[in-house]
Amino acid sequence: xxxxGFLYPWKKGISSDAAPPRxxxxxxxxxxxxxxxxxxxxxxxxxxxVMLNGLGFGxxxxxxxxxxxxxxxxxxxxxxxxxxxxxxxxxxxSGAEAVPGFRDAPAILANAPAYGYHFTPWSHLPLSAVLKxxxxxxxxxxxxxxxxxxxxxxxxxxxxxxxxxxxxxCEYQRLRRIxxxxxxxxxxxxxxxxxxxxxxxxxxxxxxxxGGVHRIAALAALGHQFVPARLVSPxxxxxxxxxxxxxxxxxxxxxxxxxxxxxxxxxxDAANWAMQLDMENMQAC
Length: 285
Known about the structure:
Blueprint: E1 2-3, E2 6-7, E3 23-24, H1 27-35, E4 41-45, E5 49-50, H2 64-70, H3 82-89, H4 127-144, H5 152-155, H6 165-185, E6 194-201, E7 204-211, H7 213-221, E8 226-238, H8 246-249, H9 255-267, H10 270-276
Parallel strand pairs: 3-4, 5-7, 6-8
Antiparallel strand pairs: 1-2, 4-8, 6-7
């Protein structure tokens, strides 16, 4: 099936009585639809997807999930994977250290757990509430995917090390299952679209992934360029509005540091960072 001039192989097998929301051509199209009560989704370029730690899927980005799925042959065991090497090499000690290449985090993150980097300048919640929300979300996420009992303050966090063998194996086997399903069945939208919100800097945009990173990583590893996406809160973060970002206006995030962090998500060369750390050299794993 062709949408917007591109071929979307994940559309196969969708029954007419379960048709998902239509896909628009751009995130801003979907945003305008959302503002008038629409439920439209959009065609999300995988190359523009970033994580809040600056890793991602563009030409200068790198992500351990997609790197693990590009390993040949793909190991059966987590311990033999690039993902295991990533967890052994990247072990930030606080939220202030958890965004590779960024050293201007606010003082409040110096004593926060490493997953505290989710406390962004545009967060409407205080740090304590962000940490509570992260713990709750991932406890439920692990239970949903057959890894009940995992807790990030005990087992670690999936986007950096250290992690327990239980968490590492859970993440790795989940990646392998999704990769196999994408390869053999395509992307079935009846299971949902990925969740993102928009960062905008003039005419440039990036899409922050807030759900579905395993699917994006699998598609990226398989060479796909697009993924169906829906917008989630805060929907749009524009650099021109930085003075009104909640954590800037209350002076928790200094304005200059907040601007540098926003730009970092656009500009950080994560591929070079991974190369400098020799992330994909499995001889030393």
